[in-house]
UniProtKB/TrEMBL annotation:
Family: Belongs to the Gfa family.
UniProtKB keywords: Lyase, Metal-binding, Zinc
Metal-binding recorded as keyword: yes
Pfam families given in the database record: GFA
Protein's UniProt name: Aldehyde-activating protein
Length: 132
Protein backbone atom coordinates (compact mmCIF):
# COMPACT_ATOMS: atom_id res chain seq x y z
CA UNK A 1 0.00 0.00 0.00
CA UNK A 2 2.73 2.45 -0.91
CA UNK A 3 2.70 3.13 -4.64
CA UNK A 4 0.17 3.02 -7.44
CA UNK A 5 2.33 0.68 -9.50
CA UNK A 6 2.64 -1.88 -6.78
CA UNK A 7 2.06 -5.47 -7.81
CA UNK A 8 1.61 -8.17 -5.23
CA UNK A 9 1.47 -11.87 -5.93
CA UNK A 10 0.30 -14.83 -3.96
CA UNK A 11 -1.48 -18.10 -4.24
CA UNK A 12 -2.53 -21.37 -2.71
CA UNK A 13 -0.43 -23.77 -0.65
CA UNK A 14 0.36 -26.20 -3.50
CA UNK A 15 1.18 -23.50 -6.03
CA UNK A 16 -1.44 -24.46 -8.64
CA UNK A 17 -3.30 -21.19 -8.14
CA UNK A 18 -1.72 -17.78 -8.40
CA UNK A 19 -2.92 -14.23 -8.24
CA UNK A 20 -1.38 -10.88 -8.99
CA UNK A 21 -2.99 -7.81 -7.47
CA UNK A 22 -2.11 -4.43 -8.93
CA UNK A 23 -2.23 -1.17 -7.04
CA UNK A 24 -3.19 -0.46 -3.49
CA UNK A 25 -5.80 -2.38 -1.55
CA UNK A 26 -9.15 -0.62 -1.23
CA UNK A 27 -9.24 -1.70 2.42
CA UNK A 28 -7.93 -4.43 4.68
CA UNK A 29 -9.94 -6.01 7.45
CA UNK A 30 -10.58 -8.95 9.71
CA UNK A 31 -13.79 -10.96 9.68
CA UNK A 32 -14.80 -13.06 12.67
CA UNK A 33 -18.05 -14.34 11.13
CA UNK A 34 -18.97 -18.00 11.48
CA UNK A 35 -18.72 -18.65 7.73
CA UNK A 36 -15.19 -17.24 7.52
CA UNK A 37 -14.17 -19.21 10.59
CA UNK A 38 -15.45 -22.48 9.18
CA UNK A 39 -14.47 -21.88 5.54
CA UNK A 40 -10.89 -21.05 6.48
CA UNK A 41 -10.64 -23.34 9.52
CA UNK A 42 -9.24 -20.37 11.38
CA UNK A 43 -10.27 -18.06 14.22
CA UNK A 44 -10.85 -15.24 11.71
CA UNK A 45 -10.08 -14.21 8.15
CA UNK A 46 -7.68 -11.37 7.42
CA UNK A 47 -8.50 -10.09 3.94
CA UNK A 48 -7.41 -7.37 1.53
CA UNK A 49 -10.02 -5.97 -0.85
CA UNK A 50 -9.13 -4.96 -4.41
CA UNK A 51 -11.21 -3.90 -7.40
CA UNK A 52 -11.99 -7.07 -9.32
CA UNK A 53 -10.26 -5.72 -12.42
CA UNK A 54 -7.03 -5.17 -10.50
CA UNK A 55 -6.50 -8.87 -9.79
CA UNK A 56 -5.45 -11.56 -12.26
CA UNK A 57 -6.24 -15.11 -11.18
CA UNK A 58 -4.57 -18.08 -12.81
CA UNK A 59 -5.11 -21.79 -12.35
CA UNK A 60 -8.21 -23.95 -12.11
CA UNK A 61 -10.36 -23.20 -9.11
CA UNK A 62 -13.59 -24.32 -7.57
CA UNK A 63 -15.98 -22.37 -5.44
CA UNK A 64 -19.29 -22.06 -3.70
CA UNK A 65 -21.75 -19.26 -3.09
CA UNK A 66 -21.88 -18.82 0.68
CA UNK A 67 -24.47 -16.05 0.46
CA UNK A 68 -26.26 -14.39 -2.44
CA UNK A 69 -23.66 -13.00 -4.83
CA UNK A 70 -20.74 -13.90 -2.59
CA UNK A 71 -18.49 -16.58 -4.08
CA UNK A 72 -15.70 -18.24 -2.13
CA UNK A 73 -13.04 -19.77 -4.38
CA UNK A 74 -10.60 -22.50 -3.43
CA UNK A 75 -7.96 -24.75 -4.97
CA UNK A 76 -9.38 -28.20 -5.85
CA UNK A 77 -5.92 -29.76 -5.41
CA UNK A 78 -4.88 -28.53 -1.97
CA UNK A 79 -8.09 -27.03 -0.62
CA UNK A 80 -6.61 -23.60 0.09
CA UNK A 81 -9.12 -20.80 -0.02
CA UNK A 82 -7.69 -17.96 -1.99
CA UNK A 83 -10.28 -15.44 -3.10
CA UNK A 84 -13.78 -14.29 -2.33
CA UNK A 85 -15.77 -12.51 -5.03
CA UNK A 86 -18.46 -9.98 -4.18
CA UNK A 87 -19.82 -7.67 -6.87
CA UNK A 88 -17.01 -5.65 -8.42
CA UNK A 89 -14.65 -6.42 -5.56
CA UNK A 90 -12.40 -9.32 -4.73
CA UNK A 91 -11.11 -10.22 -1.29
CA UNK A 92 -7.75 -11.94 -1.05
CA UNK A 93 -6.59 -13.54 2.20
CA UNK A 94 -3.72 -11.50 3.60
CA UNK A 95 -1.93 -14.75 4.47
CA UNK A 96 -2.08 -15.90 0.81
CA UNK A 97 0.27 -13.13 -0.33
CA UNK A 98 3.94 -13.98 -0.77
CA UNK A 99 4.70 -10.69 0.96
CA UNK A 100 1.92 -9.32 3.15
CA UNK A 101 3.84 -6.33 4.41
CA UNK A 102 1.73 -3.19 4.44
CA UNK A 103 -1.55 -5.13 4.42
CA UNK A 104 -2.40 -4.26 7.99
CA UNK A 105 -6.04 -4.54 9.13
CA UNK A 106 -7.98 -1.27 9.28
CA UNK A 107 -11.19 -2.59 10.87
CA UNK A 108 -12.79 -5.73 12.28
CA UNK A 109 -16.13 -7.24 11.26
CA UNK A 110 -18.46 -9.58 13.12
CA UNK A 111 -16.80 -9.06 16.47
CA UNK A 112 -19.89 -10.66 18.04
CA UNK A 113 -18.30 -13.95 16.88
CA UNK A 114 -14.77 -13.17 18.08
CA UNK A 115 -13.21 -16.10 19.93
CA UNK A 116 -12.63 -15.27 23.57
CA UNK A 117 -8.83 -15.46 23.36
CA UNK A 118 -8.47 -13.19 20.30
CA UNK A 119 -7.67 -9.65 21.41
CA UNK A 120 -9.15 -6.69 19.50
CA UNK A 121 -6.82 -4.55 17.42
CA UNK A 122 -6.78 -0.78 17.87
CA UNK A 123 -8.97 -0.27 14.79
CA UNK A 124 -12.72 0.38 14.28
CA UNK A 125 -14.83 -2.54 15.49
CA UNK A 126 -18.13 -3.60 13.92
CA UNK A 127 -20.45 -5.99 15.72
CA UNK A 128 -21.58 -7.42 12.39
CA UNK A 129 -20.92 -6.12 8.88
CA UNK A 130 -19.01 -2.91 8.40
CA UNK A 131 -21.29 0.14 8.40
CA UNK A 132 -20.25 1.77 5.14
ZN1 LIG B 1 -3.44 -25.49 -4.36
ZN1 LIG C 1 -16.76 -13.39 7.34
Amino acid sequence: MTTDRLERSGGCACGALRFVASGTAVRVGLCHCLTCQKAHGAPYLAFAVFPRGAVDLSGAHAGWESSAGYHRLYCPACGSRFANLAGDEIELPVASFHDASGLDPQYENWTIRRLSWVAPLAVPQFTRDRDS
